Task: inverse folding
């Protein structure tokens, strides 16, 4: 079992977090730091992937509307389409070495999904996967972790709704970027985009599902524990910063 340094950084502008990730990736490649997990929030930002136009065609609001709502746009260098980050999300950036025993990109993504599914289960919310898509999804009647074959949401006959998104980058088996999990996120901001380029499915949050407020720090602590369990890492040296 490897050590895992956890840094809980509070609210960090996206570009600063991106620069920090890049620096930590180089340090991890050089073996000067152990595996590391960053947990933080971002101010309102739309982030673009590297495929095609990065998701620009899936931004529904014009530049003036984005400025009026204080929303920036940032290039990322990760996979995936456009997504939204903002207050009330737990964003996790694992900087870990998958060599030698976890050199499987598909497994890595499934493990990140598993972390979010187990966090949901800890609060009594059954989340699962949708074949062919990434992330953690919620619908009525789903056992925790099972694949969601139908598209029924908890509140309507509409599609299943995403509670946690994933976009990763892997360089020489060192990971960066990661997951974004909606805790008390203002879901109206997702109306500015087609989230992850998926037009026929919505988004939800942990607070929306359980109907009560949850301290973000508490949810972060769940992520630390469950990430360690799923990835067989021993969390240590936890840096605290109020979310």
Result:
């Amino acid at each position: 079992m490897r050590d895992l340094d956890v840094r809980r950084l509070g609210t960090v502008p996206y570009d600063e977090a991106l620069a920090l990730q890049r620096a930590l990736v180089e340090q991890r490649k050089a073996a000067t730091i152990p595996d590391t997990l960053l947990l933080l929030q971002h101010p309102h930002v739309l982030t673009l992937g590297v495929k095609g136009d990065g998701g620009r065609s899936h931004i529904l609001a014009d530049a003036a509307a984005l400025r009026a709502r204080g929303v920036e746009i940032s290039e990322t260098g990760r996979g995936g389409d456009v997504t939204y980050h903002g207050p009330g999300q737990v964003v996790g950036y694992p900087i870990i070495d998958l060599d030698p025993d976890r050199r499987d990109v598909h497994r890595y993504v499934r493990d990140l999904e598993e972390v979010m599914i187990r966090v949901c289960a800890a609060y009594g919310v059954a989340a699962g996967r949708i074949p062919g898509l990434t992330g953690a999804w919620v619908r009525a009647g789903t056992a925790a972790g099972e694949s969601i074959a139908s598209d029924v949401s908890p509140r309507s006959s509409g599609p299943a709704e995403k509670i946690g998104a994933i976009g990763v980058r892997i360089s020489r088996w060192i990971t960066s970027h990661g997951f974004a999990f909606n805790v008390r996120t203002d879901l109206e901001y997702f109306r500015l985009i087609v989230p992850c380029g998926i037009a026929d499915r919505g988004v939800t949050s942990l607070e929306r599902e359980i109907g009560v407020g949850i301290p973000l720090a508490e949810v972060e602590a769940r992520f630390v524990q469950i990430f360690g369990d799923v990835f067989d890492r021993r969390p240590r040296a936890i840096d605290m910063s109020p979310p």
